[in-house]
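Putative tRNA (cytidine(32)/guanosine(34)-2'-O)-methyltransferase, Albula glossodonta. Tokens?
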Amino acid sequence: MGRSSKDKRDIYYRLAKEEGWRARSAFKLLQLDEEFSLFKGVRRAVDLCAAPGSWSQVLSRKLRGKREESEDVKIVAVDLQAMAPLPGVTQIQGDITKITTAQEIIRHFEGQPADLVVCDGAPDVTGLHDVDEYIQAQLLLAALNITTHVLKPGGTFVAKIFRGKDVTLLYSQLKVFFSGVTCAKPRSSRNSSIEAFVVCENYSPPEGYVPNMSNPLLDHCYDVDFNQLEGPNRIIVPFLACGDLSAFDSDRTYPLQVTMVTTHIQGSTPVGPKTFKIKDPVNESVHVL
Ligand SMILES: C[S@@+](CC[C@H](N)C(=O)[O-])C[C@H]1O[C@@H](n2cnc3c(N)ncnc32)[C@H](O)[C@@H]1O
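Tokens:
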């Protein structure tokens, strides 16, 4: 007898059905918690890219327990898609790369920083690895940007990451804000997938860093605000004009005329514009400047 498509579903899919989780992803967060004790002392949490809501379920069950009313527990879940309500979870339908969504999340946490931000965001996979990795990285950076506004010093940020060729750049960016950055792969995450999770502990932004929504990654808008940033929010590197002032000006047009003959011998030091040969494409003859 052939196997039905239901039989072929993996063990975590079946366990999720049995235990009432909305998605098998719930086990990824539970297994990350087993290793990192993510929920210890957490009262306020943000779940970015939350639909259909299994991570929010985990947060709700772990932070609220069996209590019907847990006034001091606050969970905010955000996704492009609407999701069915969950006890104790405030939902925002929006795009985490948009400033307006970020601002809405921040409003919910006014005066009360979050202890934990999690993000399981994934783009619709195109199959073009470079594009998928780029969009995934953009989601992670958008999540990081929101995190810098709402997370308390010492707090934890957990996010899905694609271990592509440029992943070390992301690690470096995360290390600017967190003293501990670990790449973790839960057993429930398929080995065939480049998916993993960064667990970023002890939020400690650079001294003087002011969270700022003019991050150019948001809305793909390199607006002037970005050039107004100061202190550790803006890194300025030295700009150096190089070359002899008498060298050819690359913005000028020079006539194809024989003016002077000097040969540049390989290995010798070129001496300004006088050592330049130009081949006239029309006459195919060599002119020497
Ligand atoms: C893998 S699912 C998340 C599963 C979820 N953690 C759970 O356990 O049920 C990825 C989610 O990311 C959301 N997403 C992708 N891009 C987004 C964006 N720019 N803003 C908000 N959500 C986004 C998708 O709508 C999708 O629901």
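Strands lie at 44-48, 74-79, 89-93, 114-119, 151-162, 178-184, 195-203, 277-279, 286-288.
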